[in-house]
Amino acid sequence: MNFSADVSRLLDIVANALYTNHDVFLRELISNAADACDRLRYDAIQNPALTKDNPDFRIHVYKDTTTRTLTLVDNGTGMSKGELIDHLGTIAKSGTAALMEKMKGSSDSLKLIGQFGVGFYASYMVASKVTVISRKAGESETWAWVSDGRTGFDVREATKEEIDRLDGARGTAVILNIKDEAAEFLIDEKIKHTALHYSDHIDVPIFLGEPGAADKGKPLNKASALWTRPKADITQEQYTEFYRHISHGFDEPLMISHWHAEGKIEYTGLLFIPTLRPWDLFDPSRRSFVNLYVRRVFITDSLETLMFPWLRFVRGVIDSQDLPLNISRESLQFNPLLPKIRSGVAKKILGDLDKLSRDDFHGFIAFWGQFGAVIKEGLYDAAEHRDDIFKICRFYSTLNDGEKFISLDDYVGRMKEGQEEIYYISGEKIDTLISSPQIEGFRARGIEVLYLTDTIDDFWLQNVPEYKGRKFKSVTKGDINLGQDDKKPEAPKESADLIRQLKEVLKDDVADVRISKRLTESPVCLVAQERGVDMHMERVLKIHQKYAGNSKPVLEINIKHPLIEKLGAKTADSALFADAAHLLLDQARIVQGEPVNDAGAFARRMSAFMASGL
Ligand code: ADP
Ligand code: MG
After folding, report:
1. Model-level pTM?
2. pLDDT band for position 484 (cuts 50, 70, 90)
3. Is the CB of 130 within 6 Å of ligand 1?
4. CB of 273 within 8 A of CB of 371?
């Protein structure tokens, strides 16, 4: 049979020396063997007959120098013929095809595939041929899968000799024909050292030597679940290896939370925040990947109700004392304990992040850059955690023009006397926001404005009106009260005429024209009406086709600007005045990153003005 297209592509990358460190193939194979034991342990709860031949789980690793093979044997759940074909001939992970497409010819390939994990196929870094012999627990047929890792594989019934390779009546043996350049994996010391390095956290015992050998000796590893050991006994390296085992990642964990919750509900959590964004972080499923164990038995890695979607980048294990073992995964989903665990876990992670922000500023900022936009979904998804989320939220602001992140408490602490609201401006890019005319007046008065650049910002702001009693206020919307010293600018008679005429000329495009309190340098700007949708929000909604409305903005003019003063003197010349009015409006649109309504008319007017100016 042929490999599916994504497997071929993956094998290509693996063959082209994916890792400088070839050892990781052993991690992947041990990881698979341990997963297979975990799965059978769970199935055996419902159906104890599955493990009646041998209730103990174990893994064996051994070499044979005459055949130059390295063999890994587990007595886990095993694979049927169909599973051998499906699991080792295609990649089942959702989104793989899309990932492979993305990687084509991209120099980021290695980084992407690194995150994805190559799993079983990593064998081909050291092996010229791989034979997988497997018997599904509870079945009587044994199958062999054989491939040189090029175009395809054979599946056939296993021979008597091959069946003898298994450890009893179930499980899998993976036999690698070691390439010459990887001959070190035929040396016991090397095998032992590498296996130990990658498996010390695994709770299935690993033995060096064939299954059934008279004297098995001691297992290589401690064979107890890492999260059940005291923190003081766990090295950073063991934590990292465990993280890589469960996340299939290759990066370092950025934060580790390991704790035991007692009281009404009892569970242990060992959770990690990755350094790198998982490649599918913004997948619409918003799925999370924390493994659920019940009293050390692995239950599932895809329980939707276990984690909040806004913590979906967290990896690790939750091991519950209280959940029932003897029910299906499907009904577990609705167990009333789960929301309590979820909430406790969220609280712990947010608390640890807050601590990180104080203890390791750079680490925290790295975290925020990768995952801040996701966490902020929680501001409207989980009102009960809002305060804790706000605590760790960081923003750029006018104070140092996007150089430094600040917290909302920093902002509130610096609010001016008489300032009641938290001012913000939202948009795609910080550079555009920094030069927005709408913030000139704030800058001039030393009032800080937050720059919000994540798409999610406009959404949570819709649902979260205030922070500690201070309302959030968009500077591009409605009227602005910039403090008591800010007397209402009186409108001289000329201004009143000017405004009336501007309104007349621009009546199809703007809802109103008024004298600005927020402009100091620019002649004009646009703002949304008080009751309307914020201008950036409107743009976002339009992009997502959630908004068909076309609310007219308000044009604000700076009557102290020389251009506006001169325009006031031209109100008599109607043709010239109308062109100037339209040009001003277009200018205001361009400054905030919007297209002009009629590019042709804009160019014509612009040329005319330039010609007369030159
Ligand atoms: P992953 O472990 O991330 O799913 P792998 O490429 O490592 O990806 O393995 C693919 C699949 O092959 C596994 O999900 C599992 O279903 C199956 N598999 C691999 N090794 C074993 C094994 N030793 N026993 C049972 N199933 C296995
Ligand atoms: Mg695997």
Report:
1. 0.79
2. very low
3. no
4. yes
